[in-house]
């Protein structure tokens, strides 16, 4: 009776957000959303318990199908439900474990199945269905947060692009387009212990010299985008993730750096924010 109501969850490096999604309408069920901070450096049991607590809270008292779709960062075996995140400043304790089995055991009978989908793919799928990207045939989507997620969208279908490990400036993209880069560069510029990215954004908005961080980020990101644009010309770019919320600090510069490199694709900030990943995850299994 409620097969069209699927729980969508978005797991980030420091939080989990969950809500029931009406996949027929492509919207969140009113008053079903929950978000909590997660200690991603905790033990495996602590992490699983925290995730399941939020899912249980979301499901309690509301009609649903018993199906759960989780937008999960990689490296992760999405089919088998096993985590391979290690040395990425998040969820090391889950390395090599079957996350699906652990969660099903804790959630019990209220959940019949759990699906894992690449988080950037979920984010872009939601944008392709309901955001500005829906007007374009070939789209690149990137999530900027604790990690660097990427997805390709072709004719309305999103798939993982796996650019987090793409070689870039002597390292990989994950090293340049995630929160760790911001905090590390802050320490190098200032000689002070780095706060979290949220505090950096707040300081920059008050006129801090750390505005140069965002200009450097824009230049690096523009170089990367121009490199992949030459390989696979895309029609537009969509950005999501917590760092994208600071778009006034970097988007004008990014657009400038793209224009001087003849990248014609427009850049949009996510229309639906975190909701895009929840809707995209749920819709991907219906």
Automatic annotation (TrEMBL):
Pfam families: ROK. Gene3D superfamilies: 3.30.420.40. Signal peptide: none annotated. CDD domains: ASKHA_ATPase_ROK. SUPFAM superfamilies: Actin-like ATPase domain (SSF53067). InterPro entries: ATPase_NBD, ROK. Belongs to the ROK (NagC/XylR) family. This is ROK family protein. It comes from Pedobacter paludis.
